[in-house]
Amino acid sequence: MLERQRDAYLAHVAVERGLSPNTVAAYRRDLDRYATFLATRGLDDLKDVTREEVAAFAQGVSTGEDGGRALAPASASRTVVAIRGWHRFAVLEGWTEGDPSAQVKPRAIPKRLPKAISTDEVDRILAQAGLGDGAAPLRDRALLELVYATGARISEAVGLDVDDVELAPGEEAVLLRGKGRKERIVPVGGYAVGALEAYLVRARAPLAHAGKGTPALFLNARGGRLSRQSAWTILRAAAERAGVEEVSPHTLRHSFATHLLNGGADVRVVQELLGHASVTTTQIYTLVTRDTLREVYAATHPRAR
Question: 37, 105, 230, 240: most buried, per Cβ within 10 A?
């Protein structure tokens, strides 16, 4: 019974809520772990689950007491969110009369400041991405220029089709599809436009020749859509050549947001550009820029010291 209930819920979050395949896969792992825990207690139907089981599992995923490995706070919190959603769905579907997870809250996650790098480090990474001959350097430079110019997630960038990009003078923009397939149009700056034009004119056709025809903007050596993993490898390799350490798939996105705020951009504008549903999510970047404010204050105010 639990397996059927799980599959129905996962189909719901994938189709009705539009969660990404990666999120759905993570939810499946979370719910499988929960189902295994319930099975050890002789439970095979959500209608038989009590608050005590939910609370014990929520505690167990953080410590490993449920039988699995202890999860980091963020992963443990996501797991609790997944099982709460499953129980709410069970109530809506009429499988259960009440929600035993309603009073079990996800573990609070300490706020971590996004990792941003300096504009000089960004310049070095972008320069290194474009070094070399052939189609790949032109593609790599265009990809990373676009990510930094728009604040796109790497998954959003590799998901672009050629028709999602407008490079006509005065209308330079890109259509990005974020979490839940929510669309947003983001302006594209001159450096990224130049890199994209060079890639489209001189590199995409040779790459496409090896494939079977795809509308994807960024192509791999076989002519297919560039994968998220390959794009991350491109960023990491360029960063290593540039001597920039501790980069992540979100490094250019975080730097985009931080540099805009440092330059005086309104946080709500940055929210729209990043595709955040709530300005609260974007406000974590203001914690980064406060360091800059303190430095300027300390260096310029006559009574700062």
Answer: 37
